[in-house]
Amino acid sequence: MDIAERPINFTRGVPAEETFPLDLLAECAASAIRGSHAQQVMQYGPSLGFSPLREWLANKHDVPTDHVMLANGSLQFLDFIGLGVLQRGDRVLVESPTYDRTLTLLRRHGLQIGGIPLQDDGPDLAALEAVLGQEVPKLMYVIPDFQNPSGATMSLAKRERLVALARRYDVRLLEDAPYRPLRYRGTQLPALFDLAPERTLYMSSFTKQISPGVRVGYLLGEPAMLKKLAKVAEDTYITPNLVGAAAVYEFCQRGYLDNQLKSLRTLYSERMDVLCTTLRELLPSAKWIEPDGGFFLSITLAEGTTNEALRKNAAALQLNLSDGRGFFPVPSDGERFLRLPFCALTPDEIREGVRRLAQAVQQTSNQPVGAV
Amino acid sequence: MDIAERPINFTRGVPAEETFPLDLLAECAASAIRGSHAQQVMQYGPSLGFSPLREWLANKHDVPTDHVMLANGSLQFLDFIGLGVLQRGDRVLVESPTYDRTLTLLRRHGLQIGGIPLQDDGPDLAALEAVLGQEVPKLMYVIPDFQNPSGATMSLAKRERLVALARRYDVRLLEDAPYRPLRYRGTQLPALFDLAPERTLYMSSFTKQISPGVRVGYLLGEPAMLKKLAKVAEDTYITPNLVGAAAVYEFCQRGYLDNQLKSLRTLYSERMDVLCTTLRELLPSAKWIEPDGGFFLSITLAEGTTNEALRKNAAALQLNLSDGRGFFPVPSDGERFLRLPFCALTPDEIREGVRRLAQAVQQTSNQPVGAV
User: Fold this and answer.
1) Any chain B CB within 8 A of the CB of A13?
2) Which of B195, B205, B229, B212 is nearest to B343 (CA)?
3) In sequence order, what are the beta bridge partners of A339?
4) Residues forming beta bridges with residue B219, ordered by sequence position
5) Which domain holds residue A306?
6) Domain holding A149: CATH number?
7) Contact call for residues A257 and A271 (beta carbons, < 8 A)
8) What is the complex's ipTM, to 2 decimals?
9) Nearest by CB to A22, which of B15, B34, B241?
10) Considering only alpha carbons, which residue of chain A is nearest residue B50?
11) Which end of chain B is less congested by CB atoms within 10 angstroms, N or C?
12) Do the beta carbons of residue A217 and residue A203 sit within 8 Å?
């Protein structure tokens, strides 16, 4: 099918299918099941997860093994934190916008969600300080690197000040860092977990590094906290998936991960550049934060544009968009917000997608308000 | 180490390690990742789970594919049912005793748990009818085949009457059937799901059939109900583990499961027979239900024996026992109850374990009450 006739999805943040290391991972899965850890892979095990992978991660992050827990993807840790650490009615802060699935889980647990406006270099810390002066939350959830959905990266100065504030007001930090290994330019900044390991829970996963299908997420934190979460995990599913974790372990332990990340960075950074270039050319009125890595770039459209009208016009052009309101603690704040995940589209699809987007934006801004 | 010096565990119901089909499963996992479903195995997918395995199960159970959902083990369905179908404060009935992890999850969701006494041929339906006349529960959870922990199997007459009662009082049934393929004698009875598919949710898994480490459970039920649970699952972990599910699919689709089940039945039925024979010989005072399959036999000890005293005396003999009280909605009802999982012990270990148990029972009954 010609590209002009194909539907294009700027919707979910999924990896590009051509990046999955099928042959290597098949080899690793088979070795994991047949190899020296076979019984550990096949039998019920500790709810903290497959020990060899926990050890490998501990070594990589320079923490003791009892600081590492695995789960079936990292999202599930949020559920466990809601069950094992927080109480209904507790206050939790997030960046506004933030990852939509995090908001869903925080709401599931009856938590009060407060949003701190996001700026180009991370959350507005003056706004945060004003909030902390009024009510100290139990937890603050942040995505410092190549944030989902905005693409913003928190500056070093803000990381240091955020940690200082967290210490002064005794706030626990939950750092979600699945995109951190996917930096396409600039130099890596210290994680919040590096700066304040005593009060930070650090979540990541192999979903964006190897494949979602292995379903292996991990959490770094204090052993006392992990013990509570491990009890919740045991009550929920006894043992996390071991075949996937063991395959990932073999993959990492054989040294395949570095090459995999290198090729992901090459592929994705080109796609990000194409998106930025095409946006500048075809949609100069849109505002966005230029990402340094990750999966997402998000634009804010001109005043008067509504998400619903835009998505309807886009759909008529076979361009599927996510509702930007889903990323905001107060949904109406996202009326003009649009997330554009760029990793799973080819450069041609990105260019064609932006062309359709510019056309849909044009149509939407020509419509009288309330016409859709 | 000589068997007399080895610790013996009559604790958890785990499969025997020597039964894990390592080579076949390694072959299946590699094929799943490399084969024609590779992209479906590696990428995010529907929260209902890996479609080819859902189709295989649908065919096996003679239901449409939209009646099948997968999860990371079957326990997790209970959590999803608590989140997506029930409300805090709802009444749920269980057999007394029942699976301890079910009780933990029902309590997590703030449900009111009522216990129906278990008899040799299933729950006491006169007691159930009396309860139903007073308050109709939202759900009744039962394990009709080779019940955990008692080993009891519900008779055909009781299955039919239970279904008739459920229809009359409009009660939803949750049938937990992980041991059902492991019948060692007698003939298979219809599942509650066979008798009343419109009101039964049927849970099972490959944990006892292939391996816990694959973490693949499944649920059969009405599509409208599965749709609700799939939404909860998506919010929890997006997609269940796919590498494990795809390996299981390959294993089933290649016809390996039948042989695997045959060899499990041969191995485990011998172990069950050794346990029964040795109990009759060394512990004639104990009462138990003779199982026809599954993983468990449970004994009820003589009046005056307490779980805590017995476990302490047993531990001194290097015999580890579970606290029988954990299996009862009212824990004190399990004071003299002891679950003996027999699958993961060799015949010699079973004989030695029962020898130590008889000795511990003897010591405990000689102690004045309150001496421990």
Assistant:
1) no
2) B212
3) A298
4) B69, B203
5) 3-16+258-365
6) 3.40.640.10
7) no
8) 0.95
9) B34
10) A213
11) N
12) yes
